Amino acid sequence: SDDEATHACVRFAEDHGQLVEPACGAALAPLYADQPALAGMRSVVAIVCGGMVVTLEQLAQWSRSNLD
């Protein structure tokens, strides 16, 4: 969902200090949500890209909207 993608963007920024766009957050969302489909996998790879148009202000807005 959009909420899961934006939450993943916020978490990724907190964890790695890198801003990413929601399209990238969609790829990260299953990793942050502990999806059962990933259980038991030894290695999981997520390609992280995009962040040229994301600002700290947008990230803060997403973070606040995830609290609602």
Q: How many helices in DSSP terms?
A: 3
What is the helix/strand order? HHH
User: What is the share of helical residues?
Assistant: 55-70%
Low-confidence stretches are: none
* Radius of gyration, in angstroms, nearest whole number: 12 Å
Query: What is the total tally of β strands?
Result: 0
- The tally of structural domains comes to 1
Largest sheet: none
**Category by helix and strand content:** mainly alpha
**Average pLDDT rating:** 86
The percentage of residues in β strands lies in under 5%
Describe it.
This protein has 68 residues and is mostly helical. It has one domain. Helices cover 56% and strands 0% of the residues. Helix 1 crosses helix 2 and helix 1 packs across helix 3. The protein is globular, with a radius of gyration of 12 Å. 19% of the residues are buried. The mean pLDDT is 86.
